[in-house]
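Extended Data, panel c. Modelled sequence:
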Amino acid sequence: MNASTNLAYEQSAQPALQKLGLDTALAHLDSAAQQAAAGDWSYTHFLGYLLAGEIDERHRRTVALNMQFARFPYLKRLDGFDFDAQPGIDRRLIDELATGRFLAEGRNIVLLGPPGVGKTHLAIALGVQTAEMGHRVTFTSAIDMARRLAKAMAENRLHREINIFKQPKLLIIDEVGYLTLDQTQASLLFQVISSRYDKNQAMILTSNKAFADWASVFAQDTVLASAALDRLLHRCTVINIRGESYRLKDKRRAAVGGTQPQGLQAVDTSVTLRLPEAKT
């Protein structure tokens, strides 16, 4: 680009960028045009450089909004997870999940194990990874979601509330089974699971209950529990964490020098349920 061509291009580009709402590109137009002239860039190189900045800024804003709407209780990342303290974990499986391919497949992830072994850390870390890929994520505990849906039902806006949980690319439901649900709440939890299954939308669930005990999660309704598990496990990666609470471990280390943590087992397979078949 020579100087006169550069000036004419810049003058014609400004109103076009304004009209298209490309604010970042507009803000960098002058400096980009000067670099293009100094470097004798081609028009396609100049345009690509200008639009790349716009795309990067839009992605940054998208990620910021995703993190805001996700409502994570705290921020956790996979690089902050102590894999060395869990030598039984299949790190390759976690790395595969971190690619986000499970989202495209509509594959669920279920993290099982006692309290304090890192289930929520892994769930949030994968949720953060998803948000940073540009996807919408929602985090909730099972009891909070059930209470919110019950309130919506009482106010005749249940359909709208279920849609809120149905829309995100990833829904994380934490602490399934920690607190007892009543029959209505259990039914509402099932409706969310079923609606996302029908849309092939991924979920991550954490629970301290083995699958054989999930009848207690659904108010002792074995048929409802079986129907929920049938949908959850159809396309699912199950990670069984068998180990001691990190909090108890740290306390013991402080008192007597500590012990080696037990491992974490990860499997990607179907699970045999000891529950009646779901009614069709």
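The longest strand covers residues 170-176. This feature is highlighted in the accompanying rendering.
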